[in-house]
User: What shape does this take?
Amino acid sequence: MSTPNPCLPLENRILLQALRLDDGSAAALRRMLSEPLDWARLRDLALTHGVQPLIYARLRDVAPDLVPHAEMRAQRGQFVYNGQRNLRLTGRLLKLLSALSEREISALALKGPALAIQAYGDLALRDFADLDLLVPREALARTFDILDEQGYAATPPLGSAAANDKLKADSELHFRAGDVHIDVHWRPIERFLPLAVDLERWRTNSITIDLLGRPVPTLAPEDALLYLSINGLRDGWCSLKTIVDLAHLCQAAPDAAHAQLWDQAERIGARRIVALGLSLASHVVGVDLPPVSLRYLESDEAVTILVNEAASRLTLELVDGATAYALFRRARERLRDRIACRLTPGPRDWAVVELPASLDPLYYLIRPLRLGGSLLRRSWRTAGRLVHGRLSTHHS
Assistant: This one.
């Protein structure tokens, strides 16, 4: 996408153009800003897609003379508010990480302020409204106790049916204290989306970054690139912010990290997942990728189809769960992984009957029965409509 799709509304095209990193993007942006546009809509789009700090910084640096004074004040006010919120959330993260460390819980900061520093080198340039932690599954109970001590409540409450469903999905639980939100993860993706990430390697390979003068453990660049690629795919690649994050992290990561990224992706069958993410970063944001990544991108024709589908939805629509799940399945290059996606039980199978954890394997029997029943009902309805249509034609 050397230039945004001309069929998009002007404000959408300006949003995409302002986020590009390639040569000539500034001149193209100035040409677009010279046209009559709805500034309030542009600002709303930037806020909706979580890229307002970047849009403000780009307008300030490239075209301050083309932005009305009142609009620049509004953009600057939102930028300052975002920076202040980021500082406050970072302080809460540091306090929580300190408490976890005192109990010998090896937590890693995901996304949030850690990614702001890794990808942008500036806490103010990333919009984040919550905090994410990755903790060992065996440390969950102790982590929940510490969160409770610091005034965070689980939503839904621990022990409720909804919380149990989240634990069964085996991915994350949400906690809240006032307007501070924390997501506790113990794996990068729900277990009904099968992907065998080596979490122990992530922990041993983790790095420490400086946040407000304090050391904070987080993912190494190659693991953060993989995590963002997984996270974006999980949401159907409808998040422009995730693509921009990935692009800036690609730019900041050394070439050696890209080589290690592909080695890891090869081992776990995630080459197409990574290729899709990096292709979108290059296609939408114009980031230059190192040769090792370009070789993988050019070797899989299916990636081009997936990229065009995802890019066509950007700034226009959210992706429903069924579409995101289908995209996840198609983004697996190995046949055995695509079969696993078909066979692995998920929320609809768990809803058929509630089984104790010891009987969890029975869901692998329930799933084909449920899918077979759904297929039979659809076939019966289709046959009924065909018969009804023929009878109506005969009588007429």
The two ends are 54 Å apart (CA to CA).
